[in-house]
Design brief:
668 residues; alpha/beta; Substrate Binding Domain Of Dnak, Chain:A, Domain 2; Rossmann fold; 3 domains; six-stranded parallel beta sheet; 18 strands; 49% helix
Amino acid sequence: MAEEKAEKALKSVDPASQKMIDKAEADGISTIFDRADKMKPCNIGVQGTCCKVCSQGPCRLPLPKKGIEGEDTRMGLCGATANTIAARNFVRMIAGGAAAHSDHGRGVAEVFLAAARGEAADYKIQDTKRLIDVAKIFEIPVTVGEGDDEKPRDTQEIAIELGEKALAEWGKQEGEIYTAKRAPKARYELWKKLDIVPRGIDREIVEIMHRTHMGVDQDYKNLIKQGSRAAIADGWGGSMIATDLQDILFGAPVPIHGDINLGVFKQDEVNVVIHGHEPLLSEMIVVASRTPEMQEMAKAKGAKGINLAGMCCTANEILMRHGLPVAGNYLQQELAIITGAVDAMVVDVQCIMENIANVAKCFHTKIITTNTRAKMEEAGTIHIEFDEHHALDNAKEILKTAIENFPNRRAEVMIPDEQSPMVAGFTYESIEYHLGGSFRGTYYTLNDNIINGRIRGIGGVVGCNNARTIHDNDHLVIIKELLKNDVIVLTTGCSAMACGKAGLLTPEAAKEFCGPGLAEVCETVGIPPVLHMGSCVDNSRILMAATGVVNAGGLGNDISDVPVAGSAPEWMSEKAISIGHYFVASGVYTVFGVGLPVTGAPVFQDYLFNQLENELGGMWDVEADPIKHAQKMIAHIDKKRKELGIDKARERVLFDMEARRQLDEEVA
């Protein structure tokens, strides 16, 4: 019995998830954890050397058990080598991930423009300061007149022009995207030299699909060059635009308290899970849920109220703007339904398991799809199409469906006790404020503490869950190892939620988990040692934070000079590959856990893991062992500290008045 319990515990380190996994097994309900046990991954697919871009294959080029001895003569029917096949597969993943995040951004831009024109009355510009800042990036005039006659331009005019210019970034065919110049000057100039500044978001994605068609691009280095263009078009383009426009429409996040884990469900309220990635509808569901009309409707059905809980990155969006609770991350979506307390699960796009519809059949839960791009074939699902012109009406219809389902609960409700408090919603602007205050709001304070050694460096730990790992384990082991070695961590997406459940997103965590230097800084400033920066599309916030560090001075001229390393411990989606590559293209050493589908092409793998650093200043690496994974990140951070000449701990001196006078004279 003890051995059986230990085996179950290996599926997740989260106690609430363990309870629901046990319940699913007792009820005979199949979950992703069961399927991961039964279905083993394809060995050749894992190596990245299976080609199916034409009907002559699939051509399968497994790596010989003894490895490659001498010249690698493996090839597909057309003669494509293992390096070509692996590179094609890799950049197609970049294209898929960039398309997903950037199409999200396109949808936001369309709604933003409709709101600016007054065609989507339920949406209003919430942050005019951010509007002005972003307009300047797009070279939009924000004033009219000259000299004494100069005055602010009409806000609506600015918003309309921004919406038009932002939306045009997807279809642009020449020139370059506006937001590329937000990178540090040295990084932008390197991209220009390498000819990888994106011309237009859609163009770079489409070009990958053309290049990887049978018989087109067969040079793995040339394929990765195009992969870099598309990844930059995602991270510094589509994703960044999505974040900026969402902040303008819904308000830029500020640090906010929230609660996380399956224990946030309420027995006596209508529980609605909002699942997916786009906040356009979820924002309206929040607004609708607070109307007297919806509240009274819920009470008429015997509920005390409406309890909205997020899942996956939609959860991060509504958490960081409204403080609404988070039910869990990717691997918990089936488990949420298994509580028996979910009256409706509302989904939009990305990371939605098709099996939630099958799990819902065992309970009363309604699965409601809302996006024309993402429907389900399973009987019993409901489709309520989201239309930005009638957003609030759509939201009310969705809530009405959930409310009317509340009395239909038929299974025993089992809500775990586990829920944890957290502080979320940091942005690169709020980090400036928290470190420097109103009068010195720059990254100077962060840089100074990196230089003096209290903070060793910065770790960006992001990404999904993966059923091939122990749920949440690798995120937490890596992050705790970084913290105890004085590395401050910036996190997004499912990784951020793993941290929240484990208590790492509170200021009190600094004393328990951090080395003495980082703990001192966090306790002085009053911030958590792990900063929740939003959803996976918000990784652009981490890019801007790194840019802020460079611009503050003292740590080199480019992101590649900074003691920083990136990580995706439990990655599973194509979006992660695009994210990983735009961090590499931005000059960041980036380590992935689980594995990377390139091992079947050793020459191509060596290019990604070693040679690419000579071109881009960043490179890929893989390490499945979480401790070794963290140690690789720390070793890279130490290497960068040494290159900057800050690898020696500086003696801490208490200045007396005479010393301060001498310092003032030297400065003068």
